[in-house]
Write a structure and sequence with these properties.
Blueprint: H1 3-13, H2 15-19, H3 26-39, H4 46-69, H5 74-97, H6 101-131, H7 143-161, H8 166-200, H9 203-215
Helix pairs in contact: 3-4, 3-5, 5-8, 6-8
Length: 216
């Protein structure tokens, strides 16, 4: 295997940076689960939804703490975490739209299949170019940027909501969570793809060999 290829793969995976994401994924998951439970109290009872949400959050927290010690399955964990975020956003759209249980299952299963296929195509195209060295890796923005964007979005949303009627608010909520669902799903699929790449190129063995050479 060529050194340049390994170099691009390691830069693409960016394992040290990805490891730092574990501790900051817990709170968003908890919030999104809470939103999904509240918006779907008619479709799913609070007893069932809250119990499931608690079990899922506790399981992800325990698994996350283990991954922080042994990061072999780091991308698999993050992929599942982002998939849960995406699922919560989809459930939020379901709750806001007021669609019945069976109608919702049909509509969102169909939408889910199309979005997964589209995101898989985009991931394989974009990330394949990066691994081959034909495109630059996405820049890792400072956490403060994400915080500022979130605050700006919150303020903007609060102002817009004051000028909308109930139907307009529902439409805005559906669009916001729908877009978030699609984008987060893309991140989840990209993360699963990173796990496949990490196993395919045996990056852990390469990193161990590099560490041994440095010790010598």
């Amino acid at each position: 295997m060529e050194k340049d290829e390994i170099k691009w793969v390691c830069q693409y995976l960016n394992i040290p940076t990805e490891e730092k994401k574990i501790s900051i994924t817990y709170f968003p998951l908890l919030v999104l689960e809470g939103i999904a439970c509240v918006l779907n109290y008619k479709n799913i009872g609070f007893d069932i939804s809250i119990s499931c949400a608690f079990i899922i959050f506790l399981s992800m927290f325990i698994w996350g703490e283990y991954i922080r010690v042994n990061s072999k399955f780091l991308f698999l964990y993050l992929g599942v975490e982002f998939s849960l975020w995406s699922l919560c956003c989809m459930l939020a759209v379901w709750g806001i739209s007021g669609i019945g249980l069976w109608q919702g299952l049909i509509v969102f299963t169909t939408f889910l299949l199309f979005s997964i296929l589209a995101n898989i195509y985009l991931v394989k195209r974009n990330e394949g170019n990066i691994i081959n060295g034909n495109s630059n890796c996405a820049a890792d923005l400072p956490k403060s940027i994400y915080g500022a964007c979130g605050l700006f979005g919150l303020l903007t949303g609060s102002i817009v909501l004051k000028f909308l009627n109930p139907d307009g608010k529902n439409l805005l909520g559906e669009m916001s969570f729908g877009i978030a669902f699609y984008l987060i799903q893309y991140v989840a699929i990209r993360t699963f793809y990173k796990h496949i790449i990490r196993m395919r190129y045996k990056i852990d063995e390469v990193l161990n060999q590099q560490k041994q050479k440095k010790k010598r």
